Amino acid sequence: MSVQFKNRLLQYTAIAIALIWTAIVISVVLLNIYNYYNNADQFALHEAEVSIKKDLAYRTWVASHGGVYVPITNKTPPNPYLSHIPDRDIITPHKKLTLMNPAYTLSQMMKDYSDLYGVKAKITSKNLLNPNNAPDDWENKALDIIEITRKPYYEKSKVGDQDYLRYLNPLVTKEDCLKCHATQGYKLNDIRGGVAVSIPMEQYYNIASKNSKKLLFSLSLIWVAGLFIIYMAYKKISENIQIKISMYEQNIYSLVDVIEKRDSYTAGHTRRVAHYSKLIATEMGFNEEKIDLLYRASMLHDIGKISTPDSVLLKPGQLSPLEFSLIQEHVTTSYEILKHVDIFKDLAEIVRHHHERYDGKGYPQGLSGAETPLLSYIMSLADAFDAMTTDRIYKGKKIVAEALKDITELSGKQFHPEVVLNAVKVLKDVEINLNIHQEPNTKLERERFSYFYKDQLSDLYNRSYLEFILAHRDNIEFQYNCVYGIYLHKFTHYNQVNGWNSGNLLLKNFADELKNIFPDAMIFRLFGDDFILLHKEHHDFQDISLFKSLNNTDVEMSYKHIDIHNKDINIDDLEKLL
Description:
Layout (H helix, E strand, L loop, with lengths): L2 H62 L3 E4 L17 E3 L4 E5 L1 H16 L2 E5 L12 H13 L3 E7 L2 E11 L5 H4 L9 E10 L1 H61 L1 H20 L4 H12 L10 H4 L7 H19 L5 H8 L21 H15 L11 H10 L7 H11 L15 H8 L12 H9 L10 E8 L1 H8 L1 H18 L4 E4 L4 E6 L20 E8 L7 H7 L1
Antiparallel strand pairs: 1-3, 2-3, 4-7, 5-6, 6-7, 8-10, 8-11, 9-10
Helix pairs in contact: 1-2, 1-5, 5-6, 6-7, 6-11, 6-13, 7-10, 9-10, 11-12, 12-13, 16-17
């Protein structure tokens, strides 16, 4: 699992949690808003039921008294529908009264209640005494329903352009009802109509709307606070992951630094390979994640060289078969190092196979064709291209065109054909740093480099290193102008008389004295008792008496000076002159 994938997974997880949190908040809002408006309906229904019960209770009271007598006024004129009752109107000493039956009394009360509170109520029936109580369309439907169910019926409906909760309660014919309604043909327990009430919903909806707005505001704050917490948690986890990644990378790149300090060529090599790999992968259309993966893998592809012996890693010449087999182990070592580090697991396989060949003749597993990851093939070509275009001690560098020509010829053999096609496009214009070489630049590098050219007995440089220096006099570090040939005579006789151990000790002491007397010179043991001294400036040779190692011996010393300033001279020329 790549680092980019983990970061993206964390982002998606945070987004998913934020969406879930949003869905929860929205659900709570919608549920509560639904409850507010549902409660509005319930409150209206409750008011309708209470209103009906109140009306029916009043009607029952009136009916239980056979009606009520009230003064005759413009508001309470005699009920024409009770004219068949002989004692409808009576005269008292003070007023003239008229009988109001339960229905007439109730309708009068409903009219007053409607005028005061906006609640519409009336008694209605399909078999009317009073035409003013004629049912509207909704009441007609409700009367049909209660005729069957004998139960109250209600629903929300429009009255004009306003929403109302409409409620119709059935009126069941009782014994005392027949006094007025027997003439209509009703019998005991018949449904003779109903009491209708319409409750305006606006006031309840206003309350529901107000509560919804309060809830929306409160939950919006909670929602924003939740998103902030999710974001901060994501940020904290992301920072911890980045810190962990940074720590891992610092550790692993520290190992790379160790290798680079061991071999200055490797330091530039890893960065160049990473750069070339990125160019090729981009040309091939890989996405940013894959390109970054390949770049990081390229930076670490030689990490396994940490276990390669210096004698092999730093050797300036061609490797022997045994040495080559040892350096091949760095691939497996790199894989083993990377696969155990979580953030580098995705790099391990790429690094593991970057020395495989398309024809199956590579290492470490001898994979071929599609068995090797394509990113490994890209790194393999970039690695080879850098090796071809870089000076090494044992071979010269090739120009870019020559290197790409060789790579093209190896398409389908060493290299993947598709990788070759794209590499030729992007590498043809690459500018090679002409200062890239394997030659030592610092005192430390020179000492490490010369390790391979030291004479074991005298600890002086040997003939091979002299040959190298003469061949690289264009390097300012190797621009020596004076050569001194120093010769010991009668040394063979000294060995015969005093033995080899004494002879070796004499040579060692003499070499130490040369280094002390000429600290700025480079000194070589050319043959058994012949020495070469290189100096950048002409130097008067010291008196032989300074060489205490030769005191009390028959060994004699002589020397010869040659000025090689501005002369192109090689080891063979020098040996002839000296």
